[in-house]
Amino acid sequence: MQTIFNTIKEIAIKIDFAIKTEDLGYSDSSNSSGEEQLKLDVKSDYIIEEAFKDVSLVKDLISEEKEGVLSLHKEGKYTICYDPLDGSSLADVNLSVGSIFGIYEGEPKGENLVASAYVVYGPRIELMTALKDERPKLYRAQEGLFNFIREVTLNEKGKLNAPGGTQQHWCDYHKTFIDDLFAEGYRLRYSGGMVPDLHQILLKGGGIFSYPGTSDVPNGKLRQLFEVIPFAFMYEQAGGQALNNKGLRLMELVPSHPHDTSPCFFGSNYEIEAMKEAYGVKH
Ligand code: AHG
Ligand code: MN
Ligand code: MN
């Protein structure tokens, strides 16, 4: 796995350079979720594909920016599902963006995820990696090298609330849940990029990020294989929880299509228990 994490470090340096130097405009194509692709989405996808072509451990690649599966090495062990540039529409307003990687052994589904990683392109480049039976590890780049900073553990309860989705389309009990958190003193932290938003909650010790199903998008917006499951693993390894709207662990998701989405809630224990209560899914 270290080989894959090292490749992700090389990728991170290259994508960061692309963000800082390349055209921030749209390409003339769209992706499988029907979203217009930025030139940077396409470039980041290309950088990742080229990097993993040299890693024989990698059997298949599944990208947010590609329709199907790209087979790389027949004898490879892992399928890497990735979002090359998450929050890319924030690049032109100079907010932080990220890359997300889910590493699966066997069929890509929640229970087969064996490791995950994400990169934050902010004032500094940061990398978080997660493996089974370990706390997630935070690294920060300095002059092209990643230094280990610390292990990350969530507190039982936090102070931050990052509520995604269009409020106009929230159902009543979701709105009540979010309002109640604010009434308890939670502070709003939402940039519109799930990588920096979830990263902030992890590093500040706790809180909740939600992207619910809404009347306009009943299964939410965030994609299971490249966004939801890799972060679910991070949050569980950090001592938190990650559930869907039915109270099921996101790590149990089995997508029927690579681009399937799911409503999702990531948080420390107190906030997730409150969500279960509000959604009537307390088992
Ligand atoms: P992407 O840029 O890869 O399409 O993903 C953007 C995602 C995610 O980062 C963020 O949490 C969410 O979209 C924001 O959506 P809203 O604008 O609906 O809040
Ligand atoms: Mn994304
Ligand atoms: Mn993306």
Fold and architecture overview:
The chain has two domains: 2-151, Fructose-1,6-Bisphosphatase, Chain A, domain 1; 160-278, 3-Layer(aba) Sandwich (D-Maltodextrin-Binding Protein, domain 2), CATH 3.40.190.80. Helix content is 29%, strand content 29%. The chain contains six helices and 15 strands. The protein is globular and about 50 Å long. The model has no long low-confidence stretch (mean pLDDT 97). Bound molecules: 2,5-anhydro-1,6-di-O-phosphono-D-glucitol and manganese (II) ion (2 copies). 2,5-anhydro-1,6-di-O-phosphono-D-glucitol (AHG) binds at residues 35, 64, 83, 86-89, 164-165, 192-194, 221. One manganese (II) ion binds next to strand 5.
Task: Indicate the topology.
Layout: H1 2-21, E1 26-30, E2 36-38, H2 39-52, E3 58-63, E4 69-71, E5 78-86, E6 97-105, E7 113-121, E8 125-131, E9 137-142, E10 145-151, E11 160-163, H3 172-183, E12 187-188, H4 194-203, E13 207-211, H5 224-237, E14 241-243, E15 264-267, H6 269-279
Parallel strand pairs: 3-5, 11-12, 11-13
Antiparallel strand pairs: 1-2, 3-4, 5-6, 6-7, 7-8, 8-9, 9-10, 13-15, 14-15
Bound molecules: 2,5-anhydro-1,6-di-O-phosphono-D-glucitol and manganese (II) ion (2 copies).
Residues 41, 64, 83, 85-86, 88 line the site of one manganese (II) ion.
